[in-house]
Design brief:
Layout (H helix, E strand, L loop, with lengths): L1 E6 L5 H15 L5 E6 L11 H9 L16 H4 L2 E4 L2 H11 L8 E3 L20 H27 L2
Parallel strand pairs: 1-2, 1-3, 3-4
The structure holds 4-nitrophenyl phosphate.
């Protein structure tokens, strides 16, 4: 499995999603690739937001080496699944991908856990630390669900 996590800036939510899923993949002994990107380029090249780094570290996950990059249409060729952290991100992915958009490869991150509810992971960028903890817990639960969904498939191959 090759999985891409996408938010707007690739500095708050999707770096957490990359780090959290990566840790679960390692713990489960799976051979998956996990990456993240943002639909805008305001923070390209930057490390994750200090509060995302702090909250991840409190859970034993080091995301300090990640660097923000912008989502591209070519990501549809490289990844098996692309998870949008929120609905506005999903719409922008569709717009940016153009003819490369493949609806079968894209899903809201919270959808596997809360199907049909169109649930967003809220953007913590303009808020304080508690928002980052809330986001961590949502993403953590979503990533458990992704492991449950796809790990048996890899093990059976
Ligand atoms: P993220 O948060 O999408 O979770 O990385 C944001 C960070 C920066 C901006 C927007 C959202 N921004 O517009 O600069």
């Amino acid at each position: 499995m090759k999985i891409l996590m996408v938010c707007l800036g690739n500095i708050c939510r999707s770096p957490l999603a990359e780090g959290i899923l990566q840790q679960k993949v390692q713990e489960a002994g799976l051979d998956w690739t996990v990456d993240s990107a943002g639909t805008n380029s305001y923070h390209t090249g930057e490390a994750p937001h200090p509060l995302s780094q702090k909250v991840a570290k409190l859970h034993g996950i080091d995301i300090s080496c990640q660097r923000a990059r912008r989502f591209t249409a070519a990501d549809f060729q490289h990844y098996d699944m692309i998870y949008a952290l929120a609905g506005d991100v999903l719409r922008e992915i569709k717009h940016m991908a153009g003819k490369y958009f493949d609806a079968s490869k894209v899903q809201l991150l919270m959808d596997p856990l809360h199907p049909g509810q169109q649930m967003d992971v809220p953007d913590p960028y303009y808020g304080a630390e508690p928002g980052y903890h809330e986001v961590f817990d949502m993403i953590d639960a979503a990533c458990d669900q992704i492991i449950q969904q796809y790990a048996p498939i890899q093990r059976n191959q």
